Amino acid sequence: MTVKTLTALELKARLEKGEPLFLLDVREDYEFKYARIDGSVRISLNQLPQHIYELDAKQAIVVICHHGMRSQRAAHFLADAGFPDITNLQGGIDAWSLYCDSSVPRYS
């Protein structure tokens, strides 16, 4: 299966249009507590295989992490598991903070 990508600005535009996107954040709990996109749900990358059945394969899922690398791995895992509409957020939460919502803290 193919994994699509989108930029933070593209995600913001889609959310503002009210598109029904499921925002899956695959970062660790401490990262999620520090900075997140409102409405996102956290399942860490290493816990994803155990929680895959909690996800709706019919829903469009956007996978988020810090810079886009863990989310890319998670997106490929989900696509390989048969999820047809998976998108990776390029640049992750860091790009979201830089280009869309400066109230979301950046971290290293």
Write up what this structure looks like.
The radius of gyration is 13 Å and the shape is globular. Strand 4 (60-64), helix 4 and strand 5 (86-89) form a beta-alpha-beta unit. The chain is built from 5 helices and 5 strands; from the N terminus they run E-H-E-H-E-H-E-H-E-H. It has a single domain, classed as Rhodanese-like domain (Oxidized Rhodanese, domain 1), CATH 3.40.250.10. It is of the alpha/beta class. Strands 1-5-4-2-3 form a 5-stranded parallel sheet. Helix content is 36%, strand content 18%.
Characteristic terms for this protein:
108 residues; alpha/beta; Oxidized Rhodanese, domain 1; Rhodanese; Rhodanese-like_dom_sf; GlpE_sulfurtransferase
CATH architectural designation: 3-Layer(aba) Sandwich
Let me know the average pLDDT. Answer: 97
CATH class identity: Alpha Beta
Number of helices: 5
User: Beta-sheet strand percentage?
Assistant: 15-25%
Q: Which class of secondary structure composition applies to the elements?
A: alpha/beta
CATH superfamily: Rhodanese-like domain
CATH topology: Oxidized Rhodanese, domain 1
What share of the residues lie within helices? 25-40%
Oligomer: single chain
In one word, what is the shape? globular
SSE succession: EHEHEHEHEH
**Uncertain parts:** none
Distance between the termini: 32 Å
Structural domain tally: 1
Pfam family, one: Rhodanese
Protein name: Rhodanese
InterPro entries: GlpE_sulfurtransferase (IPR050229), Rhodanese-like_dom (IPR001763), Rhodanese-like_dom_sf (IPR036873)
Organism: Methylovulum psychrotolerans
